[in-house]
């Protein structure tokens, strides 16, 4: 049943991921052909620096004119691994207009303009697949879109950024501070020269937006995601976490809020119990925990980045889109029918671990406890520690809204006896 | 874009899984309709005992004549959750002949007759989906068939039977013997009254056959799977495992053999290092570890059985097949193009932990070591322990073929100084 006319594939970008995609397309050509039902042919590669040597790629295929490439009109599939918003967005929509389906690894673009891109794909009857945009090689988009399509997902809780997990794991296991761990991550190539997108949570927030959208059949944009980075996590926080039987991870959390009539999405560092499967995710690995009505708790684990793993996800999509082309059909498009409102961070309900520096004199605990009570935040445990005339209070709360906790902290700061709020960290995964 | 004519679904079997499928089809009808693009209608339910009360199911839909039901000719999808070979096999092929696609949870049937069923589906241009047949709710078939379609899978290593994992976990954590742990599993409903299919590894072997077939694009039948149960695992084995920094799991292992020109599939108890992600899979949970060229190591974790989780997998397939019907297409069928030979157990290469009861006199170790050397099995470590005039030798080997190890053990048994071979266990996951 093999079709002989090859599927023509254009590659936009030929960096770490793109070159690996091109390599596997060549070395595994027979396998891909058998799985798709038609041979695949690399029809063009758009790059910024054409003079760079690209092993195994016919120089005649290389061009700097990506726009002309996607306008050729004879392409079946465009693989976009440039990243960033422009020119990727225009190139993808142009590809649809000129008859190609698209496989993308572009989380930032999908998180910002997913709805418009899906609409463009649907308008032209083409596929838009992007398994590689979230958690690298880990099959996650397809299981959420398809395997769990008959279930109701209530929560997605994941480690979706390998750089920050490497740093936090290093801090946890060696007692290193943030800067020292970041330096090691940079030296080993786990962190980029400018690590902002990772350590400030932008990368994870884009993935959270994509995951929330798919999990809840609702459009969630990057701007809807509450984002806190992990640059202020300290060795002292890890010591506190250990005392609680926890570790600290940068988590992306998407969940139904309140009675399920709205959704929230957020990224922030959080304490998580050592017994939780996410606590033992080491190094630069990613893992995503999915909780749903019928299937209970599922976890997906694997390498979250890297050329080869990301290429594996791209090629899985390439096979699926290729099969669809051969069969004259398209796969599932955007599913946003539920259209739930996205609630603000203030409505998120969770537990909190708060460290306060306080005056070491009688009555302080009573004052502090009163402030919590006035804001409706119930205290689970309090621990007092004296140190050199000063004292610290560690308060762990029961579940409370972020708004209530925020009000509590604001009021605590106004107390004369509270010298400072040393840290506030959410406690998740219980 | 909603189609108004509903998709007609027939349910074969209405036990723990079937009743949950029916329940979710009713309670989540709107969600399913939105995700499929057409409403779904329960058109008939075939059962053995029609007098049993079935909450929420219109008694007019219930029939004992499954054959007449699948022959109706107006069905879109038949969901088979009867299990076993017949009448399930005939009902499924009859369903294809009369125009329906099929969603099945039947691992035994798929492992035995998957090729014939796929051929029947293809002949009639229908879908055959069976995500629920392996590892319950865990999305595994679809990720392997689709997400990893652009990658080369080298090994699948999994805990795919919840009953045996519950028993082994109990033995590990409480020091209980096999019978005691089995009794508790039975009392808690994790083991059936006749636990043979689980504890003798038949259930896991069927799943191994299905996984190997999909992972290696090769037909692998139940008979091709080497199978050893876990009824002979003892508390002493767990003690030995602990000394090695390991625990014991019943593993399904599918891997490329030798130079990758053949495949093997096997189920047996094995020691696995505590640091391996599979070692911490507790209770009745399942987890499957997949190693591939590009994506490295992936793990899929979740509940491996139970009505609701299995129903979630069935409904995910129902949505996919329903979408295909609405779109007038079918999903990927059998992929067996690689057609690799299946090697016998003798060609499997792994490490071994062997406990010998030996005479406590000089020269025994030299004798034993000579036998290993003569069979080309290289020893990693030996530990001697004296006990009451007798002694035990614990030998851990380097990697060797199962055939070489078998020859070694046969020769050891003939030594006068070897009183008995107390246990042989493979060491995996390193």
TrEMBL record, chains A, B:
Binding residues annotated for NADP(+), in chain numbering: 12-19
Catalytic activity annotation: L-homoserine + NAD(+) = L-aspartate 4-semialdehyde + NADH + H(+); L-homoserine + NADP(+) = L-aspartate 4-semialdehyde + NADPH + H(+)
Amino-acid biosynthesis recorded as keyword: yes
ACT domain: residues covered: 353-426
Enzyme Commission number(s) of this protein: 1.1.1.3
Residue sites binding L-homoserine per the record: 192
Active site: 207 (proton donor)
Single GO molecular function: homoserine dehydrogenase activity
Cofactor list: a metal cation
EC supergroup of this enzyme: oxidoreductase
Residues given in the record as NADPH binding sites: 107
Alphabetical UniProt keywords: Amino-acid biosynthesis, Metal-binding, Methionine biosynthesis, NAD, NADP, Oxidoreductase, Sodium, Threonine biosynthesis
PROSITE patterns attached to this UniProt entry: ACT (PS51671), HOMOSER_DHGENASE (PS01042)
GO BP: methionine biosynthetic process; threonine biosynthetic process
Protein name per the record: Homoserine dehydrogenase
